[in-house]
Amino acid sequence: MDSRRLMVMEDTTILSEIHKLVEEEHKLRSQVQQGQISSDDERTRLREVEESLDQCWDLLRQRRAAREAGQDPEGTQARPKSEVEGYLQ
């Protein structure tokens, strides 16, 4: 997911992107089970999908927190994947 594209998304668009990424995740798992792609290809692409999902969820949380604090959620920006992936759960 391109960070610049995430910057201008509304909540519904972010949720739609999350849904699309989850569908891709399921498709990848199915493709490897059916022998359509290799396990290595699946792992590589799954990592990219998971990072994009984390980035989308992070942006959605930022927007919701801004709204709850009485701020404009449009002022939030997607954080770099490297930053989002560095968070402790």
Structure description:
By secondary structure, this protein is mostly helical. It has one domain (3-68). The chain contains four helices and no strands. It has helices spanning 3-7, 11-33, 39-68, 81-85. The longest helix has 30 residues, at 39-68. It starts with a helix and ends with a helix. The model has no long low-confidence stretch (mean pLDDT 88).
Q: What gap, in angstroms, lies between the N and C termini?
A: 21 Å
- Could you tell me the mean pLDDT? 88
Quick one: overall form? elongated
Q: Report the radius of gyration as a whole number of Å.
A: 15 Å
- Helix share bin: over 70%
E-strand count:
0
- Poorly predicted regions are none
Largest sheet: none
What is the domain tally?
Answer: 1
How large a portion of the residues is in β-strands, by DSSP E? under 5%
The DSSP helix count reads 4
List the topology elements.
Blueprint (H helix, E strand, L loop, with lengths): L2 H5 L3 H23 L5 H30 L12 H5 L4
Helix pairs in contact: 2-3
Summarize this, please?
This is DUF2630 domain-containing protein. With 89 residues, this protein is an all-alpha fold.
Features:
89 residues, DUF2630 domain-containing protein, Uncharacterised_Rv0898c, 4 helices, mainly alpha, elongated
